[in-house]
Amino acid sequence: MRPPKALRLGIGALLLIAAALSLMAAWYAMLVSFTLPPSFTATALVAPAGTQSDVALEAEKIRSHRILLPVVTNLNLQREYSTELHTPQELPPEAASELLLIRTTLRPIRDRQLIAIAHTANDPSMAAKIANAIADSYTTSASGRNEGTAAPAARLVEPATPASHPDRTNRLLPTTIALIAAGLFAIGGLLAIVRWKSGLSSNEA
């Protein structure tokens, strides 16, 4: 039995509306991605304390509040982040530390016995300053832990310097995700229409 004309028109209208919304969402994501402030990443290299097998473990220690809270305090990141996020009150130290961690990438380099500390910020000088502050906080803490032992001391191998060019990922990623989502939705809509028409044909037969 063929569905009523009103029902067919309603389904078609819903598909068109959904497709239009999908395209609008993709366009909005592309617009937002190109209006975002540029971000810059700076990387400091540190030689961790301990043996080669400790590289990954030492990288995890850098993620702790013990290492990050001194950076928050010394650079007054509570006020910095509160201003950036337009919060009515200054962020608590732990919240600022979590935000600091989110913007920091730690990568063990086992073949060179190093840890790369990369920080991303809207200002290239601030990105380098924070990456170096994290490296300094870690080497200071690690030196205190290993004082009086035979373990190699942690040291800064290469300080972070301000990037001369902004990152591209913060602009390309939202656009790519939006386009993929819109494409998948379009494919899903086409498959739904084909199945619907096939159902109509079989009912008419």
What is this structure, in a nutshell?
The chain has 205 residues and is α+β, with helices and mostly antiparallel strands. The protein is built from 7 helices and 4 strands, in the order H-E-H-H-H-H-E-E-H-E-H. A hairpin with a 4-residue loop joins strand 2 and strand 3 (114-121).
Structure description:
With 205 residues, the chain is of the alpha+beta class. Helices cover 61% and strands 13% of the residues. It has seven helices and four strands; from the N terminus they run H-E-H-H-H-H-E-E-H-E-H. The chain has helices spanning 5-35, 55-62, 65-74, 77-85, 93-102, 124-145, 169-204, and strands spanning 40-47, 104-109, 114-121, 155-158. Strands 2-3-1-4 form a four-stranded antiparallel beta sheet. Strand 2 (104-109) and strand 3 (114-121) form a beta hairpin. The protein is elongated and about 70 Å long. The mean pLDDT is 78.
How are the SSEs placed, and which strands pair?
Layout: H1 5-35, E1 40-47, H2 55-62, H3 65-74, H4 77-85, H5 93-102, E2 104-109, E3 114-121, H6 124-145, E4 155-158, H7 169-204
Antiparallel strand pairs: 1-3, 1-4, 2-3
Helix pairs in contact: 1-7, 3-5, 3-6
Order of helices and strands: HEHHHHEEHEH
Total strand segments: 4
The main β sheet shows up as: 4 strands, antiparallel
Helical proportion, percent range: 55-70%
Q: What is the oligomer described by this structure?
A: single chain
Spatial order of the strands forming the largest sheet: 2-3-1-4
Q: Averaging pLDDT over every residue, what do you get?
A: 78
Q: Which term fits the overall shape?
A: elongated
If helices are DSSP runs of H or I spanning 4 or more residues, what is the number of helices?
7
Radius of gyration: 26 Å
Q: Strand-residue fraction?
A: 5-15%
* Secondary structure category: alpha+beta
Q: Segments where pLDDT lies below 50 for 5+ residues?
A: none
Termini separation comes to: 9 Å
